[in-house]
Design brief:
The chain is an alpha/beta fold and 453 residues long. The protein has 2 domains: 252 residues, Aldehyde Dehydrogenase, Chain A, domain 1, CATH 3.40.605.10; 181 residues, Aldehyde Dehydrogenase, Chain A, domain 2. It has 14 helices and 18 strands. Strands 12-13-14-11-10-15-16 form a 7-stranded mixed beta sheet, sandwiched between helices. A 6-stranded mixed beta sheet has the order 7-6-5-8-9-17, sandwiched between helices. A 3-stranded antiparallel beta sheet has the order 3-4-18, with no helix packed on it. Strand 5, helix 5 and strand 6 form a beta-alpha-beta unit. The longest helix has 25 residues. Bound molecules: NADP nicotinamide-adenine-dinucleotide phosphate (NAP).
């Protein structure tokens, strides 16, 4: 059973029967049939559809943000921005796909040689609930522009968002069956990947899910891109602009109720400014309004599910067992809904197993360091490698440290974020492959060599 549950109230909104294996297979057959003609459409035709999808998203930003708030607890103000960003990525690829996919001539081989980027078939997207529109559009826009078809297996707690996405693309004029939402649970992903028409999978989610689905992709010799969890370091040097650093630290750790892969999760602060940083961060996090995600004033909504909240509380308890000192929050509040308060913990032993995990909620771990060397070592002492930031008064020093941090992206004196123009992805347990930019659209294409003798 796939269920939509309002995490602010605990009420079941709607339930869906999971599709049978036969229904899933028939749907994949239909998508495969729709792919052939779609793969031959002109890029301009695909671009027009994506531009229309962007307009539909913007025209419905209020309702779609309300849907996210209801289904996974995202505050509406943040949800509306997510819809705008989803529209932006559609427009980015409508505008740039032709350039990214233009055939490239190669001199000196035969009388003529070139490399072209051609569609592969159906791409399976296995998606998480935390940015239920953005995550899907950031893979759908390049996948469809490249001439592939796509099937979506969305997280089981956001089935109504999944349906809404299919409706947007349908209304935008995408031919029938080129994009389908599959109402299936994780157990059917293996069969979907085994279907002949499915050329690959892009999974965004936990590293546990990534390991499992990447193994299935490998067995079936299908391509895979894995966008997995993170434990981003936020390194603050003694000469950093603390006003800006603290403001971004609070936003990065608490936006989306702390449930973001590129949220700053470990704050690594030089001893000279440590006390001041912690005090200011406490003020900043205390000031955040927690409550009804439908209220435009709310910054922190409920967590997406009560199960996830219980897991986070368990991790907080383990931080305390590992020497942690609670500066703020740290326990489940009374009342309905999966709310969890902004929490700051200092003094946790850097060797503790819990520090190696991803804390997916508004919980900041702050570490004191005595040197830049120690800061870099701690920043890299995690199985993850998604993003990270360095805060430095001296920009060159910031760049020097950034070069030593082993992650898919590092931002100096700026919030770690994703944008259509830049490749996005991780290393180590944060996964492999890239989304967005030219790198993203070339993940699921046939890089084809043609030579004329
Ligand atoms: P999740 O539990 O791993 O689920 C993600 C998706 O994978 C869901 O659709 C889920 O289906 C499916 N799934 C889980 N286990 C599976 C398996 N063994 N076989 C096939 N499918 C499986 O993650 P989540 O709780 O939705 O999302 C939070 C995680 O995503 C965090 O770790 C976060 O850091 C990461 N994330 C990464 C990025 C990035 O770009 N790197 C972006 C956003 C989020 P069900 O819902 O049906 O279980």
């Amino acid at each position: 059973m796939i269920r939509s549950v309002n995490p602010a109230t605990g009420q079941v909104v709607q339930t869906f029967e999971e599709w049978s294996a036969d229904t899933t297979r028939e749907t994949l057959d239909g998508v495969a049939a729709a792919w052939e003609p779609w793969s031959e459409t002109a890029l301009s035709e695909r671009a027009a559809i994506l531009r229309k999808a962007a307009r539909i998203l913007r025209d419905n930003r209020i309702e779609l943000a309300d849907l996210m708030a209801m289904e996974m607890g995202k505050p509406v103000t943040q949800g509306r921005l997510e819809i705008d960003k989803s529209a932006l990525v559609c427009e980015y690829y409508a505008e740039n796909a032709e350039r990214h996919l233009a055939p490239e001539p190669v001199e000196g081989v035969g009388s003529k040689a070139f490399v072209s980027y051609e569609p592969l078939g159906t791409v399976l997207a296995v998606m998480p609930w935390n940015f239920p529109f953005w995550q899907v559009f950031r893979i759908a826009a390049p996948t469809l522009m490249a001439g592939n078809a796509m099937v979506l297996k969305h997280a089981s707690n956001v089935p109504m968002c999944a349906q809404a996405i299919e409706k947007v693309l349908d209304q935008a004029g995408l031919p029938e069956n080129v994009f389908r939402t599959l109402m299936i649970g994780a157990g059917q992903v293996e069969n979907v990947l085994a279907h002949d028409s499915v050329a690959g999978v892009c999974l965004t989610g936990s590293d546990a899910a990534g390991r499992s689905v990447a193994a299935v992709a490998g067995r079936n010799l299908k391509r895979s891109v894995m966008e997995l969890g993170g434990s981003d370091p936020f390194v603050v040097l003694a000469d950093a602009d603390l006003d800006k650093a603290v403001q971004v630290a609070v936003c990065s750790r608490c936006k989306n109720t702390g449930q973001a892969c590129i949220a700053a999760k470990r704050f690594i602060v030089m001893e000279d400014v440590y006390d001041e940083f912690v005090a200011r961060m406490k003020d900043g996090m205390t000031a955040l309004k927690m409550g009804d995600p439908m209220d435009p004033e709310t910054y922190l909504g409920p967590m997406a599910t009560e199960v996830l909240r219980a897991e986070l509380q368990h991790q907080v308890d383990r931080c305390m067992e590992a020497g942690g000192i609670l500066v703020l929050g740290g326990s489940v509040p009374d009342g309905p809904g999966a709310f969890y308060p902004p929490t700051i913990i200092t003094n946790v032993s850097a060797d503790a197993a819990v520090v190696q995990e991803e804390l997916f909620g508004p919980v900041a771990l702050v570490f004191k360091v005595g040197s830049e060397q120690e800061a870099v070592e701690l920043a890299n002492a995690t199985p993850y490698g998604l993003g990270g930031s360095v805060w430095a008064g001296d920009g060159n020093k910031g760049l020097e440290l950034a070069a030593r941090i082993r992650t898919g992206s590092v931002f100096v004196n700026a919030l770690v974020s994703s944008t259509p123009e830049l490749p996005f992805g991780g290393i180590k347990a944060s996964g492999y492959g890239r989304e967005l930019s030219a790198w993203g659209i070339r993940e699921f294409v046939n890089v084809k060599t043609t030579v004329v003798g």
